[in-house]
Design brief:
alpha+beta; three-stranded antiparallel β-sheet; two-stranded antiparallel ribbon; 20% helix; 20% strand
């Protein structure tokens, strides 16, 4: 994706310490305004985010970024184990608190250290640990309002992942 089609965002968020922080995220220009609105709703709801740094801080390594519990957007990478480009490579996907919201495939859970969160009840109204996404919570509703899909509803759930329905070019 050409750089001119991406936007660098500085966003306020509430940390796990309950304090206000400023994070960085890159998304496709077409989604920037909507994403700002989503994070505004999360901030107003005091929904906690561990950290929000560009994946550059982790050398572009998705595994390192996830293990650091980093909320991220754009990352020029392929889908793990595939030759297809990830929605992240188009600035059309965001991962939130990957440790609390792991990617679960068969018997595998990523990132490392997220195993205890793989079996959390994410049904509407369920009590979940801080920063954990559950069905119909403020996070899912905010992204759904801009037409984005939650990976937590997939057969192999990617609880951290949100993507634009029309993400691929």
């Amino acid at each position: 994706m050409p750089w001119r089609e991406l936007r660098y965002l500085r966003l306020g968020y509430v940390g796990f310490d309950g304090r206000s922080h400023t994070g960085e995220l890159v998304v496709a220009a077409a989604y920037a305004r909507d994403v700002i609105g989503v994070f505004g709703k999360l901030y107003d709801a005091r929904w906690p985010i561990r950290r929000m740094r560009l994946v550059d801080a982790y050398g572009g390594d998705d595994d390192r970024s996830m293990a650091a519990d980093n909320t991220s957007g754009f990352n020029c990478r392929r889908v793990k184990g595939s030759k297809a480009w990830s929605d992240h490579a188009f600035g059309a996907a965001i991962d939130l608190n990957p440790v609390q919201n792991p990617y679960v495939t068969g018997s595998s859970v990523a990132p490392r250290g997220s195993g205890p969160f793989a079996g959390v009840d994410r049904a509407p109204g369920a009590l979940v640990p801080d920063g954990t996404i559950r069905a119909d919570d403020v996070v899912v509703r905010a992204f759904a309002a801009i037409g984005w899909e939650w990976g937590g509803s997939w057969t192999e759930p990617d609880f951290q992942h949100f993507t634009g329905a029309d993400a691929l070019p």
